[in-house]
Amino acid sequence: MIVEWKPGIKPPRDFCPQEFCFHWRIKGGYYAFGIHENLEKALGGLELNEESKCGCSFGSCKRDKSCSGDKDWYEPCEPFLEKQGLPWFYFICDAEGLNPEDRKAYKEYFNEE
């Protein structure tokens, strides 16, 4: 996905941030789906991802247009967000669930009252 995100401009609420989400699985990457007893078992369960897609193991995300999810499972992929110069909360829909310090930073960043 090639999109230029502008600092201070909120993305649409229903937009799937893809590689900006921890659950996003990139084509050609290897992933060990689920929870594993230890690293050795996780590495033994690696599977090649044949296409880029949501890999959330908790349920279908409502931001993923390929399914009919009923919950927003977005989880910030902080290293990728930082690499692009975006704050960790950039794709969070609103400040309501954030702690007071993060809520303040969110509102300042997006120029909200």
**Low-confidence spans:** none
Report the β-strand fraction as a percent range.
5-15%
Outline type: elongated
- Spell out the helices and strands N to C: EEHEEHH
Features:
single chain, about 110 residues, two-stranded antiparallel sheet, 3 helices, about 20% helix, elongated
Give the topology, please.
Elements: E1 24-25, E2 30-31, H1 39-44, E3 47-48, E4 53-54, H2 78-83, H3 100-109
Antiparallel strand pairs: 1-4, 2-3
What does it look like?
With 113 residues, the chain is α+β, with helices and mostly antiparallel strands. It is 19% helix and 7% strand. The protein contains 3 helices and 4 strands, in the order E-E-H-E-E-H-H. The strands form 2 sheets. It has a two-stranded antiparallel sheet with strand order 1-4. It has a two-stranded antiparallel ribbon with strand order 2-3. The termini are far apart. 16% of the residues are buried.
Structure at a glance:
Helix content is 19%, strand content 7%. The chain has 113 residues and is α+β, with helices and mostly antiparallel strands.
